[in-house]
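User: Design a sequence. Structure:
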């Protein structure tokens, strides 16, 4: 089936097209041009979004849940509910993210999440955001910068334990957070990188040399920049300074105005080159729900007025990625194209899914988010099919 999609504007990396015409066939984009420069094939189905902007579907590499469902402790119905919620906020794909917990809990979660990833791959369903792989956040984290991760369940980096996680996940671990200063972290990072796992430095009290050693071992990203990191110091800059200084390192940011002050969001934007900043949510099960008590992994978390806390410590967020983008534009005055790149193109590059997400171009999968003039999600297309929001 050939479908013609029209709107007021199309944004994709480094490109803006006014009055775009997008022709889709069999779930892929066959051509894109401005109205009048492209002949519309006859007998095509047409979808017109007057006044709207077309952008690549977003990709959230760090999310723990939504709609009352914790991704570490859920079932297929819960996973599907989270996927539908994410799609309503413009997300086409995501990495379900785990928490530090007793090892048996982690193994069970990895097994359940992997089954759902495999089911999604087999069914090819476009009813919600697609889980691409697992983000293992913990247990190889620093005690000093653990946040709410339970100290009794933290582990010293171990290649043997990583292999057990890998087997439980049947190879579906795509991203892993590691504190590089821990004993054995270098070997763990090298091994994980050799297995195809992207390693992100985070929940870390690393000094400068320790952070650089982690990058030399193969780390390619940083987890929620500024949060759960050694504070910046002019004599011992530490991990945070390395993250802001290293142009080739990807770096996550929670842009909710709670985790990171807008002034530092602007600093982050200036420090990171356009193709390395990544907006994330770090969302927990309370996202999309009223204030109250919720679960994050095996922990009880209180949610009130947009803040998620456990014993006074921030514990995830209730942020959605479309809101993060609007916040980023407001805080930095960056063009919307840049914010969209931070939420689509860059995470797609980090995860190795640039052929399916992050760009609208001929030959690419038709994963498209339709935005109102205010940046709110109107429709989401996954593989050319409209998702019921």
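Assistant: Done.
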């Amino acid at each position: 089936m050939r479908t013609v999609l029209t709107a007021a504007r199309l944004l994709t990396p480094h490109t803006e097209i006014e009055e775009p015409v997008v022709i889709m066939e069999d779930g892929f984009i066959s051509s894109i041009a401005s109205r009048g420069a492209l002949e519309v094939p006859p007998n095509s189905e047409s979808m017109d979004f007057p006044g709207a902007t077309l952008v690549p579907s977003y990709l959230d590499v760090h999310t723990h849940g939504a709609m009352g469902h914790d991704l570490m402790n859920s079932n297929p119905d819960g996973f599907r509910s989270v996927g539908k919620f994410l799609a309503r906020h413009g997300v086409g794909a995501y990495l379900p993210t785990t928490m530090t917990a007793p090892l048996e809990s982690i193994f069970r979660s990895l097994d359940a999440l992997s089954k759902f990833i495999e089911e999604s791959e087999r069914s090819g369903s476009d009813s919600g955001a697609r889980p691409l792989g697992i983000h293992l956040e913990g247990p190889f984290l620093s005690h000093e910068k653990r946040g709410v991760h339970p100290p009794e369940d933290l582990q010293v980096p171990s290649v043997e334990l990583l292999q057990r996680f890998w087997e439980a996940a049947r190879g579906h671990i795509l991203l892993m957070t590691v504190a590089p200063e821990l004993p054995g972290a270098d070997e763990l990072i090298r091994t994980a990188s050799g297995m195809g796992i992207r390693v992100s430095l985070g929940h870390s009290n690393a000094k400068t040399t320790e952070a650089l050693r982690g990058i030399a071992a193969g780390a390619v990203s940083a987890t929620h920049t500024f949060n759960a990191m050694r504070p910046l110091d002019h004599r011992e800059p530490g991990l945070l300074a390395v993250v802001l200084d290293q142009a080739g390192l990807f770096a996550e940011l929670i842009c909710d105005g709670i985790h990171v002050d807008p002034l530092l969001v602007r600093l982050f934007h200036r420090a990171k080159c356009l193709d390395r900043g990544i907006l994330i949510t770090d969302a927990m099960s309370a996202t999309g729900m009223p204030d109250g008590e919720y679960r994050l992994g095996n922990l009880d978390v209180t949610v009130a007025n947009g803040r998620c806390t456990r014993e006074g410590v921030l514990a995830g967020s209730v942020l959605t990625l479309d809101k993060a983008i609007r916040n980023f534009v407001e805080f930095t005055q960056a063009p919307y194209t840049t914010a969209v790149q931070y939420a689509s193109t860059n995470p797609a590059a980090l995860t190795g899914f640039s052929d399916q997400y992050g760009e609208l171009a001929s030959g690419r999968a038709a994963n498209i988010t339709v935005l109102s003039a205010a940046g709110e999600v109107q429709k989401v297309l996954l593989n050319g099919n409209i998702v019921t929001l």
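The two ends are 22 Å apart (CA to CA). The mean pLDDT is 95.
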